[in-house]
Amino acid sequence: MHILAFLLRRSVQAVIVMFVISLIGFSIQDNLGDPLRELVGQSVSEQERDLMREEMGLNDPFFVQYFRFLGNAVQGDLGTSYFFKRPALEVIMDKFPATFELVLGAVFIFLSLSIPAGIYCAIHRDSWITRFIMSASIVGISVPVFLTAIGMVWLFGVELGWLPAFGRGDTLELPWGWETGLLTWEGLSHLILPSVTLSSIMLPLFIRLIRAEMMETMSTDYVRFAKAKGLSTSRVRYVHAFRNTLLPVVTVGGLMIGTLIAYTILTETVFQWPGMGFLFLEAVNRVDTPLIIAYIIVVGLIFVVVNTLVDFLYTLINPMVKLPGAKS
Amino acid sequence: MITLRTLATATAVVLGVGTAAPAQTLNFAYDADPVSLDPHEQLSGGTLQLSHMVFDPLVRWNKDLGFDPRLAESWERIDETTMRFHLRDGVTFHSGNEMTAEDVVWTIERLQSSPDFKGVFSSWTSAEVVDEDTVEIKTDGANPLVLHTATYVFPMDKAFYEEGGAEIAKHGNSFASRNVSGTGPFTVEDREQGVKVVFERNPDYWDASSPGNVQTAVLTPIKEAPTRVAALLSGDVDFIAPVPPTDLQRIDNDPETKLVTMTGTRIITLQMNQERHEALANPMVRQAIAHAINNEGIVQKIMKGFGTVAAQQSPEGYVGHNPDLEPRYDVARAQELMTEAGYADGFEATMMCPNNRYVNDFKICEAAAAMLAKIGVDIDLTTMPKAQYWPKFDERAADIMMIGWHSDTEDSANFNEFLTMTPDADTGRGQYNSGNYSNAEVDALTIASLTETDPEKRAEMLQRVEAILYEEAAFIPFHWQDLAWGARDGVMIEDVVNVMNFPYLGDLVIKQ
Could you tell me whether strands B239-240 and B475-488 are parallel, antiparallel, or unpaired per DSSP bridges? Predict the structure, then answer.
């Protein structure tokens, strides 16, 4: 029952979060610019534009527009994109696989590098490799992501010519309609540069985090006790100590999903990656308000879902932790 | 995709399409893809670029700003207000339907109902079928610009669109925005909006004399300029536009690629609002500002030479271009004029500029503000993305505002109609005159030029207008933005590009 109560609570929270986001999104839309300007050419007269604005219901009072939106939203219709002329949600869902695979690639890269590197640096504190990794991670944190991106394009795309400089390549369509680039060499080769770029934001941070946590855990009493008990060094390190190291890492990781989503916007733009982030930036440029609002609502939902998953992971890693809101 | 391409190339080789040169695939990247397949939905560069691939106009511009016959084989003026176009015989649409005068008239009527295009066609009162191959256009007065306007008539397949749905939808879905049947050199094989458009050569293209050998053309929009350039340099694409000024040298120097540039026709200006700011209503102050702005320096330093210094609206080659007008940067003279006008100590003014609309737009404004500081004009500059800028421009929200303009008709009068004539909400004239500049003679001469069919008299009128605007410093001209295309060696892009920036890709030759 605990889990059910927890899930129910979370669902209610998700609805509230999305409601608040939609309200904020709606109230700032006037500051995003005039969508009509992007829909018509330069020589169309103001009267003509005003006529169309009236037709589209953009002249209605704020709350009339908002309640019309809410009414449609509860039926699953988040509006129709001005540019794509298709339901905004459908457009976003079309782009979701591209972003998901990019994030997946980035997560794979930074997890498979940061965990071994972090542990290594915690155990061999004074080795020259540790010093190198630590100083490199400082540089990594300080370089802005678009610079990393452009640097990678120039080096691997233009100068060396090893990897494609933009786009996703040709994709395969899986039976349930998911367009994947993970199953062909062409798709993977397109994925490498953007996902390395995206992981470059997380990687240095996670190495430092894991190292610091690991060092702290290694000096706690229970680890010393485990050693005294005669457990093998590797068991103490990788089972007992590492497990506790993971708790803060998961917390920070969950929070960082937001940052990761923000950076997909930059990464996707530089690499012309046909995902949600690029779509969003384009929508802002074109003042495609329905698409902008639908995007932030979807991202809000992703946040809630990810944080729920993080809470679940907690209980798996540390049975002492209870699901928030689930009274025992 | 690879198999499809190979198959297409193989078919083309077997059929021996058109020319001796072997069929080729062209991968090209623009900064955006067309918003719709409907050529009447939005009047923009993207739409016209698409139109020239999938459709053909009645007549089209050539390199000397003259007209080449396309679907209209010839034309004749019947009287002052009547023009007859004789259509080419044996042209078919992609659907297989034959193109006739019916289609042309239907297209013109559709254009006149499109919010974006009706302005261009406002002087055309009727279009009628004379016989199967002849269309007669009537205008509301003597009209010197019938051919200019005819470059916008890309005959559409009446039967095809009437069956599917001919509605022009600005917002919302329509048949015409997703389906297309024209007469052009290419058909649209596949389109994923914002990702790519795949064109295939039309095997039944009427223009057998076209040297073009592109069998498949793939357009990929690449928004970010550095990525677009990288795609060209790494060989992922064969041809890109636009090229950012910072990378011109690089593309030019690379032995595998080449740069093609051309003087453009888009004028970049500042308008000074005479109603908002008392000082700016004084012609002497405006002249002082014109003297204080070093537009040559801006072209050299900020545009890296990628622009042509301007002292008027009309670029060279336009009838209204007045060769006597010269840039007039002279700070000492500017200071004198300020003193004479009674503003020896200067004044404060606000300025607004977009930061993603024109090449280096906000940098130009920053430089201009710094130059004006030298004559005591203290500028409070705000820059913003175009999405926010245009509503501000409509509000006339600052004393000095930036605007760039390209004449849709490639004719000088268009600049005046939108930028310098007295604003009038009823006629729509002066819609982009944020300075509220008003001069009866400019208005009268411009109106007269719209019905003057004698080219010499017309040139005289429009050049006179430029002289008045210069004399009164109606606006501050910076430069005409140059155009640039980057291409892989062997892609003969220089033969098909033009000042309007719609490359005739149907005629493009790729050498092996």
Answer: antiparallel
| C-alpha of B69 from chain center | 20
The pTM score is 0.83
| Min distance B35 CA to chain A CA atoms (Å) | 7
- The burial class, CB within 10 Å (0-12 / 13-18 / 19+), for B156 is buried
End-to-end distance of chain B based on CA atoms, in angstroms? 21
Show the CA angle centred on residue A319, arms to residues A318 and A324, nearest 5°.
90
The alpha carbon of B295 is separated from its chain's Cα centroid by a whole number of angstroms, namely 23
Residues in contact with B342: Cβ distance below 8 Å, sequence separation at least 6, in sequence order? none
Dist. CA A62–CA B109, nearest whole Å: 38
> How many angstroms away from the CA of A183 is the closest CA of chain B?
16
Residue B356 near residue B303 (C-beta atoms within 8 A): no
Are B107 and B153 a contacting pair, CB within 8 Å?
A: yes
CB pairs under 8 A, 24+ apart, for A86-95?
A: A86/B173, A88/A290, A88/A291, A88/A293, A88/A294, A88/A295, A89/A294, A89/A298, A91/A279, A91/A291, A91/A294, A92/A276, A92/A279, A92/A291, A92/A294, A92/A295, A92/A298, A95/A274, A95/A275, A95/A276, A95/A278, A95/A279
**What is the C-alpha to C-alpha distance for residues A266 and A272, in angstroms, rounded to an integer?**
10
d(CA B353, CA B361): 7
Q: Do B388 and A33 touch (CB under 8 A)?
A: yes
Q: What is the dihedral of CA B237, B41, B164, B154, to 10 degrees?
A: -70
Per-residue pLDDT of chain B (512 residues; tens, 9 = 90+): 344 444 444 444 444 444 445 778 999 999 888 888 999 988 888 899 999 999 999 999 988 888 999 999 999 999 989 999 999 999 999 999 999 999 999 999 999 998 888 888 988 999 999 999 999 999 998 888 999 999 999 999 999 999 998 888 876 678 998 999 999 999 999 998 888 999 999 999 999 999 999 999 999 999 888 889 999 998 889 999 999 888 888 999 999 999 999 888 999 999 999 999 999 999 999 999 999 999 999 999 999 888 999 999 999 989 999 999 999 999 999 999 999 999 999 999 999 999 988 989 999 999 999 999 999 999 999 999 888 898 889 889 999 999 999 998 889 999 999 999 999 878 878 889 999 999 999 999 999 999 888 889 999 999 999 999 999 999 999 999 999 999 999 999 999 998 888 999 999 999 87
B35/A43 Cβ within 8 A: no
Report which DSSP code applies to A217: H
Closest CB to A85: pick one of B173, B224, B389.
B173
Which residue in B has a C-alpha nearest to residue A50's C-alpha?
Answer: B115
